[in-house]
Amino acid sequence: MTDTSGLLDPELDAMAEREAIAPAPTMWQTVRHEVFHRPATRIALAVVVIFVLVAAFAPWIAPYDPLQQSFLAINQTPNAAHWLGTDQFGRDVLSRLIHGSRNSLIFGLLSPVFAAVIGTTLGVSAGYFGGVVDRVVSRVIDMLMAFPELLLAILVAAALGGSFWNIVIVLTVAFTPGFARVARASTLAVKQEPYVEAAMAAGVRTPVIIARHVVPNILAPIVVLMTLWSASSIRIEATLSFLGIGTQPPNPSWGNIIRDGLNNMFATQWPILSGGLAITVVVLSISLIGDAVRDVLDPEAG
Amino acid sequence: MSVLIEVEGLGKTFHDTSARLGPRRPPVRAVDGVSFQVMRGEVLAVVGESGCGKSTLGRLLLHLIEPSEGRVVIDGQDMSTMGAAARRQMRRQVQMVFQDPFGSLSPRRSIADIVAEPLDAFGLSGSRRARRETVADLLRMVGLPAAYMDRKPRQFSGGQRQRIGIARAISVDPSFIVADEPVSALDVSIQAQIINLMQDLQREKGFAYLFIAHDLAVVRHIADRVAVMYLGRIVEIGGKDQVYGAPHHPYTEALLSAAPEARPGRRSGRIVLQGDVPSPSRVPSGCAFRTRCPLATELCARETPPLVEVEPGRLAACHFASAFPITRRRNAA
Amino acid sequence: MGGPLLEVRDLTVAFGPRDMPLRVVDGVSFALDRGETVGLVGESGSGKSMTALSVMRLVPEPPARIGGEIRLDGRDILGLPLREMPAIRGRDVGMIFQEPMSSLNPVMTIGDQIGEAISLHGRMTPAARRARVIELLTLVGMPDPEARIRAYPDQFSGGMRQRVMAAIAMACNPSLLIADEPTTALDVTIQAQVLELMTDIRERFNSAILLITHDLGVVAEICDRVIVMYSGRIVEEAPVEALFDAPRHPYTRGLLKSVPSFSETRERLYQIAGSVPPAGTIREGCPFRARCPLRMPRCAVEMPPMAAHGPGHRAACWATAEEAAA
């Protein structure tokens, strides 16, 4: 029989007992600790939640129809009736901002999520299986990386027209190689870890190894990249709208609120200021949340 | 005793397959024409220096690395001709214990998940409750309190982690365990604990070990038979006492004589080999050991000595091995 | 000059808060004479490397706080300003590390690296320096030194790099050579070469060698005296034969018994129970008591002092001190 007597001496056992009373932190405890013990993260989370709620309930929240023009009230500065003033067509800036958040947030979240899923799948396959798969994926990544995402988006939007889904697809294609590259590099590193080899040796199936050992360990950089690019995505949508190939006027998005405001900058600065501030606040909040998520995913945290 | 594992002409050449452009690195001949058998319940130790191919050999046996040539027969079934599904079932018979107690346990999984991983892989873990009970038994078997099963590996010391790795390997009741340097990363006072545990489990459960090591004293303690490797080839294989008592290959003799022993006053009479182990991408012609061998002749450069039986159950690959064992020859000189 | 070459008295290295310090080295005293090889033996967290680094003042202060006294050739090392240390490292003390690759600059030829070590301590013409580099490489057994001085570290094997390290360490004929696990990363046949080289250096230059290792085989092979450390403290110190023949500390005894032997085979190895405690975590009493078969109540309260057990043989254990007195 196995000799286990005297394996753990009294002192170490006592130490273990004390530890047992306070068990290892669960995932939820780690999340709570990382997210809620940092005021900045709490504020960021609140900001994003508020913006999402605003976007979801836009028609009910907005005080006016965002498209309704009024020549009786153009270029107003903030006042009791129009909290953020009006633009050159007399449209309520606050209402346009609220309705515009729908387009901007959808672009900001949809394309990065699509790109993350597709890019991670490609990158993990390339990194894990190597060989021909790797060579094909790597070349495609290199090719796409050669185009700046904005240029790619402009090219496609110019060729196909600026419909909503075209923009989403364009941004997804533009972001995918970045995710694929990060996922591939991280997978190559994780694949070298002895515990992956241990899982292979134990007889674990390849899909299970990828799902259980590889993906969780490469998630941290992917999430950071996702938050980074949801910010870029909002920015690029704004740029495209600004260039007139994103959200088509008179529909509002934060980008074309700024564009319209720019043409009328000397009459009123409020559309530019409020649109710019909305983008800045959301982008900053998403980045802060990304940092917190990365820390939660770090196995050595807590 | 019946034959459990039969290895025939096993070889592995690594080619530079990187995606980068430019000249390819020369192929590395890591394992070259290795043949041996492992009996049921036997401990066969593989010793040799870094780069001799002993770790690659262990991975070839598990088909963690696909062999370039040769075959591995486990329990009468040829792994190389087997279908993927059958080969996976075969995996249950063969498990592995790793050198690195820190890297070989996934940092984000609980001890229970790690220990039950092979069970889960073969659908043997049963209900949630049964799985926890099995894990508790396994932890107790390796000398860890079952209460530890919900913790993460980072809360354990090196020796405790190695126990967890051993619990994982024995969870599916394998008939063969490849142990790749299982104690070399541990503190000296912990090594004995792990060696004793591995021995106790082996005697209790009757599985066989392929024990890969560079520490000759540890091998002397745990092995039944010893295979000595040099540059991808087995140069000598035989019973432990025979190999340690009277080596038939000059490399074995040099290796034994170079190993320091924890006993002062043995300082004279050591054979210090000159030079380094050649790179496995540039293996010398003929006998690979000839560049460092004190006995090398022009014959050794021309012809590769085959691994031939020099005594019953004892094989050596040296042109002069069968003529006279090295020690006797030196004593005569 | 009289007195020992290196004298360490009551050395303490502490980290962390002052009211609850983590003493990774705790009250360590020993001395080293010229021409002597002393092994400093211990497991992870024993403080052996930290002790050696303190001698070179290579422990960053802060965060570390170093107390006690270190005298090299009568000079107070801990009292010297840090800017004078580089002159002492290299000229008076040479060092060899475990991983020779990370200690060598990969983009400099080894000739330049050895040459740099030479010129740090005295001006020389380029020709004279080159001659000295070749002399050193020959000394450490490098084949074909004239050709090898133009090679880069990655063109050498581990054993050859360790020879280069030894050549750098010996560049100014130091009186003390500190070798921190010099053979741990090497294969046995290469280890044999490096051990032979170290013995050779000591004999030729009458240098003192402080060999830090966890390998009792290496100690038995080349050391004259042994110092055994456990959890930051010296638990036993003895001439090498005495230590292996009649160890006086239960830790040393356990360690020697637990190592498998070449000559005799046993059914089962002796095992020391428990795990190695992390450095400095046991603050009161004898650090080994939790794993000790001879443990008694007193061990939990008071750290045993070093008791004499014969010429040059001391051990810190209440139980064996009683044995000796009885």
TrEMBL record, chain A:
One of the protein's GO biological processes: transmembrane transport
Residue span(s) of domain ABC transmembrane type-1: 101-290
Record-linked CDD domains: TM_PBP2
Domain of life from the UniProt record: Bacteria
GO cellular component, one term: plasma membrane
Subcellular location: Cell membrane
Database matches in InterPro entries: BP-dependent_transpt_permease, MetI-like, MetI-like_sf, OppC_N
Keyword Lipid metabolism belongs to the record: no
Lipid bilayer topology: Multi-pass membrane protein
Keyword Transmembrane: yes
Keyword vocabulary terms for this entry: Cell membrane, Membrane, Transmembrane, Transmembrane helix, Transport
Transmembrane portions of the chain: 43-62, 105-130, 150-175, 214-232, 270-289
Annotated PANTHER family: OLIGOPEPTIDE TRANSPORT SYSTEM PERMEASE PROTEIN APPC, PEPTIDE ABC TRANSPORTER PERMEASE PROTEIN
Family statement drawn from the similarity comment of this UniProt entry: Belongs to the binding-protein-dependent transport system permease family.
Protein name: Peptide/nickel transport system permease protein
Lineage, uppermost ranks: Bacteria, Pseudomonadati, Pseudomonadota, Alphaproteobacteria, Rhodobacterales
From TrEMBL, chain B:
Start and end residues of each ABC transporter domain: 5-256
Record carries keyword Cell inner membrane: no
Statement: the UniProt record of this protein carries the keyword Nucleotide-binding: yes
Entry keyword set: ATP-binding, Nucleotide-binding, Transport
Major subcellular location class: membrane
Membrane topology label: Peripheral membrane protein
GO cellular component, one term: plasma membrane
Pfam families with a match to the protein in the record: ABC_tran, oligo_HPY
MF GO annotations: ATP binding; ATP hydrolysis activity
PANTHER family to which the protein is assigned, alphabetical: D,D-DIPEPTIDE TRANSPORT ATP-BINDING PROTEIN DDPF-RELATED, TRANSPORT ATP-BINDING PROTEIN
Classification via InterPro entries: AAA+_ATPase, ABC_transp_ATP-bind, ABC_transporter-like_ATP-bd, ABC_transporter-like_CS, Oligopep_ABC_C, P-loop_NTPase
Gene Ontology BP, a term: transmembrane transport
Subcellular location: Cell inner membrane
Tree of life domain: Bacteria
Protein family per UniProt: Belongs to the ABC transporter superfamily.
Protein name: Peptide/nickel transport system ATP-binding protein/oligopeptide transport system ATP-binding protein
UniProtKB/TrEMBL annotation, chain C:
GO MF terms held by the record: ATP binding; ATP hydrolysis activity
Location of the protein in the cell: Cell inner membrane
Keyword Zinc: no
Domain ABC transporter: 6-256
Pfam families cross-referenced by the UniProt entry: ABC_tran, oligo_HPY
GO cellular component terms, semicolon-separated: plasma membrane
Database matches in InterPro entries: AAA+_ATPase, ABC_Ni/Peptide_Import, ABC_transporter-like_ATP-bd, Oligopep_ABC_C, P-loop_NTPase
Protein's GO biological process: peptide transport; transmembrane transport
Record keywords: ATP-binding, Cell membrane, Membrane, Nucleotide-binding, Transport
Membrane topology: Peripheral membrane protein
Coiled coil: none
Family: Belongs to the ABC transporter superfamily.
Protein's UniProt name: Peptide/nickel transport system ATP-binding protein/oligopeptide transport system ATP-binding protein
Organism: Palleronia aestuarii
